[in-house]
Specification:
- Helix 1 packs across helix 3.
- The protein has 80 residues and is mainly α.
- The two termini are 18 Å apart.
- The protein has a domain of 46 residues.
- Helix content is 82%, strand content 0%.
Length: 80
């Protein structure tokens, strides 16, 4: 049982670290594509701060999804 808990924590930490970075870069890329004022001197970093905020707010749901994926994999392996 300890191995499954460790694996769930590991998947959760991977989600906690990887997903927010990916979300931040996707949002930043979309913001620069869809809003021409992003990155201009008059913007004062508004687009970048919005992308960072969305990345920070996606951290806990990403961790929960990582743990859920691990638990689902363990549950399916036990049923087979």
């Amino acid at each position: 049982m300890r191995m499954r808990i460790g694996r769930a924590i590991g998947f959760g930490l991977i989600g906690l670290l990887v997903v927010p970075v990916l979300v931040m870069f996707v949002v930043l890329g979309l913001a620069h594509l869809l809003e021409p004022s992003c990155g201009t001197p008059g913007d004062s970093g508004g687009c970048e701060m919005g992308a960072a905020s969305i990345g920070f707010f996606s951290a806990l749901p990403a961790m929960a999804i990582g743990v859920a994926v691990s638990l689902l994999m363990d549950w399916r392996a036990g049923k087979a």
